[in-house]
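Worked problem 6 (solution included).
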Amino acid sequence: MQWSLYLLILMGQCCFFTCRLYEYHFIKENKSWYEAQRYCREKYTDLAKVFDMTDMSRLRNSAQNQGEAWIGLNNTGGNRTWRWSLPGVEYIHNDSSWNLNGRTGTEQPGNCGRKRYDNGDKKLVDVSCAFTKWFICYDEKKKDNKKLYLIETSMNWTQAQSYCRSIYTDLASGLDQVDGEEMKALITTTFSAWVGLFRDSWRWSDGSNSSFRYWDMELFNDEQSNKTCAMTLLNRSGKWSSDECDKEKPFFCYDADKLILIKENKTWEKALNYCENNYKGLVSITNPEVQGWVQETAKDADSPYVWIGLSYRCTLGLWLWVSDYVVCYDKWATEGKTEGCDMSAGVDRGGQHEWFSHRNNETYNFICSKQ
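Solution. The predicted structure is:
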């Protein structure tokens, strides 16, 4: 096969490949939310968490039930935390990005974020999610080489989020999207628009920071103080609502024991052979969720870095995973990537757990994927 054709095939495999290092288990027994949590922690990893729409499809497909079932989200009643709607985009507070006095007209304070785009104040403002506004969608598929789309139809924040997720990927999330160069190209007139910013006090049972929410707004009321545990409504497209935690329902657990850290220092090639002979292979990190699992696993390493299944292929001039997928998601350290025929990638054991390229003959611990 010609290299150019092979390259096109590889590129076609890029961003739609997802590696999920956990499985869902539907438990038909009726238990309260806290009983279900205890059961899942004893038998599996924890009550189910959901990272994105792909997970929602997997969750629904794992059940033969059309009723209600607990998931691992509950309202702690603590301070509301700002989050970006797009999974994997971390919210980092920056006072200079906000104008808390920037509401206009009848706007009231609230739990959703909008921006006003004009030649003046372009900062974020918190307003009620019930207002209807234009909104900005993000599309990771890059249709027509575009990532951002201004939708000139007025919707409330939840409706805008649903629209973006059904037609594109999600509401624009992260300052690099809402303030980036492509966004500036959309500004041909003054307008106020929703972006993918919201805040809530809901937390996942396992402590993860997944910002994904899938509320059925016809049934869910965030102010119902006695309904603090989340359930998925399998007869309503799997959307979520909440109920009193002592109610008894079936539930979903997840099992995340899919990675193993090998505390032996080996060259990259020997690590690769070890994982292929004993497990599925060196781990491939194809999305932020897998990166999170690798980070937790790497913390226990005996070496400063741990090998992962990423190497530079000279014949193609590309970094490729051992699965032959090109790199779509990455977490390279600044100046951490050096291309060369004898280079592979390792994850920093500490700090931000960023990726660094190392020579293949260096020896480190490594992480294998079990399946």
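Discussion: The chain has three domains: 23-79+201-255, 81-200, 258-369.
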